[in-house]
Structure formats: C-alpha cells, structure tokens
C-alpha cells in the first residue's frame, strides 16, 4: 500500500465529500416546500464545495502518491475494499465537480418547477457518484459508482427533459451502458490475473500482449463512448439538447471528463504496451473528432446543438493531448478538461437562460437580443471567446499546450488538428454575431428581462475561472505535474514490450 | 427432540390443515388470509429457530443441515412476501380463498421438504407435492368474458410438468440402476467414479431436467409465458420466484454429485445457460404484457444462475444461491407493484403503467428499483450477484460465457428501462390514485431496502450461502 498516503488527520474528508450529498438527498425526502428544498440543496452543495477546498491547500504536489487515503475492507469474500485517494489529476476533477454543483442548483432555481424535490435528489445523487468515481481506488467501487450515476442522469433527462426526452434518455443510457458492460469483463480479467481489485496495484504489472490489447479495447470502448469520441458520439447531441439546463451542464462539465479520466487513470498505466500499439489510430480518431465537431457545429441553427457538437470537437483536443503521450500534451489535456467544464458549462447556462425567456433555442429567434440584454450578451461573448481559445482565456493555454505536445510527436497530425481551432472561431463568432447584432428588430424582444442577480451569480464565478486560468494557470498546472510524470513513467516503461504487441497487429 | 428438526414443515402442515378446515367451514373465508400469513411467518420463525440444527429423519432420507435450513428461511420468507401483497385477492372468488391459501402453503411445504431431501424417492414426492399444488393454483382465477386463459395455461402447465417429471423419474431409474441405491450418500461416491459413463451422465442430466423445468431453463421453458399470463397475478408472483429458489438449491445438490469430474455435465449446463440468456432476453424485448415480459426475462435469469453451477465449485454454488435469493426479492418487488396497480386483478400491459409515478409514487419507485436491479445495475443486488457470477465463471475458465452474459445484460437493459420509462412518462389516461394497502406499502419499502442492502453488503448472505453449500459437499 505504498502508493496510498492514508489520511492521518482523523477527519475522513473524502468520504465526507461522497456521503454528504447522499445524506442531503435523504434529508430532502423530509423537507416540504419547493423553495426550502432549493435552499437546502444549495446549502448541501455549498458545504460540500467548502469542504473540498482544503483538499487543494493540503495537497502535496511534490508526489504522485494518492493522498487523503481511506481504506476499509468491504466485501471480504472477494477482497473488495473501500479505498479512496486522490492524486493531482483527480484532485482537479473533484474540485471541478464540487465547485460546479452549487452553480447547477442556482442555474436551475426557477427553471425547474415540477417535482423539485426529485430533481434536487437526482442532482445530489449525481454529485455523490461523480465524486466517488474520481476518488475510487478500487475497481469494483469505481464500477459501481460509474454505473450508478446512469440512473439519476437518465431520470434527469427522461423526466425534466425536452420534447424528445424519451428517445434521448434511452439512447444515452443504452450507449453508455453497452460500453461499460465490457469494462466489467475487463475488470474481472484484471482481478483474475493479479488477484486484486486495487487500481494502483494493477498498474505497472506485466501482462501478456494479447491480454493487454483485449483489456485496452474493453476499456477504450467504455471511455470513448463516455467522452464521447467520434464516431461514438451520436448519443451526445440528443442527450444535450433534450436534457434540462442543469443536466446539460453536468453532462458537459463533469460526465464527459469521466471518459478522459478513465483513459488517463486506467488505459495508459495498466495497459501501456497496448496503448503504444493503438496510439496512431486513437490520435487520428481524435483529429477526426475535432474536425467533425467543428464542421457540424458550423451548420447548426439550434444553439444547444451547436455547443453540443463543439463539445465533440473540444473533447477531441483532450483525447489528442492524452494520446500524444508527452508531459505537455497530457498537462494540456487535463487543463482543457477543466476548461471545457467551465466554458461549455457556462455556455449551456447561457442557452438555458435564453430558452427560459424566449422558449426557443434557435439562433434566428435569439438574433439581435444584444440591444435588450447587455449583461447577458457580455457573458455570452466572453464565454464564446474562451470556447474558441482566444489568448488570455483558459482554453488558449490548454489548446496551446496540447498542440505544442502534439507538434513534438507528429507534425502532420498537428497540421490537421489546427484547423479545428479556426473552425471553433467560425462557429462561435457566427453565434455571437447573430445573437448580439444579428437580424432586424424583433418586436418580441422588447419585453425581455436582462439577467437577474441569481443568474449573474451563476455565471460570474465561471467568468472568473475563465480569466484566472487563462492568465495564471500555474496553481492548476503545479498540482498535476508529478502525477502526469508518473503516468508517463508507467506508459514509458513499456517501450520494450511494444515490439511484442506490434506483432499482433495486421 | 427429533420433532423439533421438523418444525418448519410441521408448521406448514398444520397450517395447511387449518386452512382446509376453514375451507369446509361456513363464513370463514375472511379468516384465511390472516391465518395463512401467520403460518408463513411462523414457518419463517421456525426456520430461523432451527437454523443451526442438524440431523436426519425418516430413515436418513431427510437431512436437516444448514443448507436446507437457510433455504427454508428464504422460501418461507418468499411465501410471506406474496401473502403480504394486499388485503384481498382481487381475482379469486371469495369462497375458494381458503383453498387457494391452503395450496399455496402446501406447495411451499413441498419445496421446504424438497431442499431437505437426500434420497431420490423423497425428493420426488416433495417435488410432486409442490408441483401439484401449483397446478391447482393456476386455474383458480375468475373467468373473464370470452377468455379461459387460466384453464388453457393450467393444462399446458400440467402437461409439460408431467413430461418433465417423467423425464426426471426416468433419470432416477438410471441412477438407481447404476448404483443400486437411491440415497445421495451412496450415489455421490458411486457416481464420482463413473462420471464418464453416458448412463450416469444421462441420469444426472435427466434428474436435473425436472428442476430445469421449475427454473424455466431453455428448453424446459415452454410453460412460462402462458402460465404467467394465465394465472392470477398473485399466483404468478409465487410461481415465478419461490419454486425457483428451491430448484436452484436442488440443482446445486445434484451438481455436487459430479464435482471435478463433470466435463460433459458442464458443457451441457453451459449450452443451456447460453441458450436461456439469449432466448429469454431477445423474446422479452418484444413483449407488451408485463407478466410475459417478466416470464421471458426469468428464463434469462435462469441462464445467469447456471453460470454459478457450471463452475462446479463451492463459490459458484454459493453465488448461485445468493443470486436466486436476490432474484426472489427483485422479482417479488416487481410483482408487488403489478398486483397493486392491477385494480381488478386483470393482466397489465406495459403501457398500462404509464403515468404510474403520479398515481402512486411509492409503487413507481419500487418498480424502478426492481427493474434496475433485475437489469443488473449497481448499487442493487442484481449487480452484485451478476458480478460475482461472472467473476466465478471467469475464474473457472469460461471467458466466452462471461462475455455472453455481459452482452445479454446490455440487451436486457432495453426492456427493463422501457418499463421505467413508461412508469415515469407523463402520459396515461388513468389518473385515479392507487390505494396500496398498508402491508403492501411496508413490504415495498422493506424490499427496496433489502435489494439495496444485498447489493451493498453482500458479505453476510454470501457467508451464509457458502457455509450452507459447504454443508452439502
């Protein structure tokens, strides 16, 4: 257990973070009145966020070990343990999750009017399972939380979603579940091979080439669907468009990150040789996703769809960064995971706010609201700039690192990826131009209210994030360096075995 | 104190007798349900009381051990659950209710005796006692205009059942002919030396056939859709869950005869498992009647359970027991909702459930938990059971089976999910709220908690199941 620094403070901070939202959800059952339920959920998510902050200050960035660890035997007959711990990579994603949840509550304050209690319970259950996924160091625990999250997300889309919610929710559920059943088989295979479910203990072991390739493919399918990588992305636009605003935000900001987190946490360190073998294929798939997402976004008339397809492109950058296998690329990818969470989450909030006012997400309807909603369009413009990676914003740093990392490995590949950034500028400027200045005077816009205080409070922290990470990303970069180096070390040591696996390929 | 060993059986027997007296009395029908419930709970208590008892009865043909007592606990628990469903049987004429409850108790008595039988003839008698009671329960349903489904399904059930019994009896004659004994104690050592002989294999396979019928393993499943549809909802709830537990237990007892030498036996079981999973899941996809859908999905679950028995190992057996117990809870929870929602005892189409969340949030939630659990989603019992079954099968070297089971899980999600979807959909022309009885409400909360507890803390039941299996090996 030398990989785990057990929590010595006596306060089980990770468990608290996981179970606080769950306890909050149970307590909601007893709270009457929609408003009280909203305030309660805000309180619970707020307290969870506050408790998560000491994780950052107490984190030792000089080591790649898993920190704040907790270890309790759970199902002894199968040697399944309740093991939690976070390294630099999961720390950032945990913070992203905890800090986003209060905003999701704020962002759905008045928009959700029916069955508020159930909605808030779903949000809190989502938080519990998402945090657990990023903290779990036992494969069974990980898988349980990974799958359990499907249920509240499914309900969020299926109950509070748009007109085609049934189709979208079932597609989301089936796609992601189909991917992860093979993940379960891979987990069992790993357990049989090493006799443990402990994730760190399974890293850096020697597995046969065929075994690695099969395990990698099972992992890959599950994670690629979650990311989603082109061509496994078809569930995403439907789910995004039909989900209620908070659902879209959670999907974009946190859920998609679970896929890329899976690549980093499992594929690279556990099946390094297989990673080297499939590397070129995955890199080109990523580039295909960047271009596909960009072009498709360019053609959208629906703002939500536009942002959904832009997600496919942005996540293509993230997977590209991961699979170039160098420090710059992976650091850029992790930063971009956070950035995409902030920016795309914010853009979905913006679309949701527009929808609440005009009951339409069409660019044509929104055209020209700038005159009447100056605060709104200011936010929208800044987030759009961030989304297209304008220098000074967060995404610029991330995309720059990814492209720099990728350039060092493969210049041709990078040459194909760079137009993705130009496409992003094209579709984002198109949207901003239409919304702010576009069209003639629409008489229906006269009565539109600009953002109220609650909505400003939802968006303002995200705007701070955009510029903070854009101008001074060091606080985020510092905590992940050791962990990224560790991942690279685990992938790199396998170079000797690459030849053996290569012989398997046609 | 030998009679104490027989306490659960005595309770059921006396309870049955009392119910019989009620059935000939006048104006006593309303006492039947409380009495039956008392009998079920007393049996549960008696099983719990004699959990650690051990001994032989009736010239050593009847063995009390941890294995049998654990199963008696589960079986009587299942009976109690079905009896707790509602205040009244909506679909069964008032005057025959005492008989209905009597046969329910007698069928359970047969099952309870079954799991203690360690001799072929005793086993046969116990099985038949249970089966014949069930055959009589199926047609006990009020006629609907232009429909005599219950008669048709009862006849199908009896005919298929009798054939299965005949096959089993035939297999028993092989075993007796080969070994010269009908006692398991003598059969097991004798059979282990002749596992490669076709006659022994055929004998074991045919005896298993009788239990495959009860468990509804493909190709012994023919009765399932019609009986599920034809019998009243409460009867189906019983048939679809409680006898299956006993069937799994007996399959384990028989498979235990063949430890380590049973290559052919495992191939046969593996083939049945694969066929059951695919057939059950694929046919369930297109069902519109929810009982039929659960019937076909039950065939698939029988396939999953066989994964544990295929391994011919202690852990595999224990997991199968764990899984079928979890299945009992999940399935009973599903049927509880069906029985509650079906106001007049009619068969429900899946579409009839639409908007259920408005009519009864608790029932909708219970149904959702039951469906998610049956589909094998964490954190419920179905996931943990499947996970352990897959782990065991992988360990025993059946990777293809593991992958097939995983793929089947993905297929099954679709139809389970569509039930949840319909339940929570906005539509539905029915708007009147559903008044579940207090016992049904309490039971649904209890079952949801049980399904969750089995999923999150499987260790306790697994330890009990492992100990139980150890006692028969």
What portion of residues of chain A is helical? over 70%
Biggest β-sheet of chain A: count, sense, barrel?
3 strands, mixed
Strand order within the widest beta sheet of chain A: 1-2-3
Determine the structural class of chain A based on helices, strands and strand pairing: mainly alpha
SSE string of chain A:
EHHEEHHHHHHHHHHHHHHHHHHH
The value of Rg of chain B in angstroms is 21 Å
Beta-strand percent range of chain B: under 5%
Amino-to-carboxy terminus distance of chain B: 26 Å
Mean model confidence by pLDDT of chain B = 85
Structural account:
The complex is a heterodimer of chains A (506) and B (473). In chain A, 74% of the residues lie in helices and 4% in strands. Chain A is mostly helical and 506 residues long. Chain A has a three-stranded mixed β-sheet with strand order 1-2-3. In chain A, strand 2 and strand 3 form a beta hairpin. Chain A is globular, with a radius of gyration of 22 Å. The two termini of chain A are 40 Å apart. Chain B is mainly alpha-helical and 473 residues long. Chain B is built from 20 helices and two strands. Chain B has a two-stranded antiparallel sheet with strand order 1-2. The longest helix of chain B is centred in the middle third of the chain and has 31 residues, at 149-179. Chains A and B meet through helix 5, helix 6 and helix 7 of A and helix 17, helix 18 and helix 20 of B.
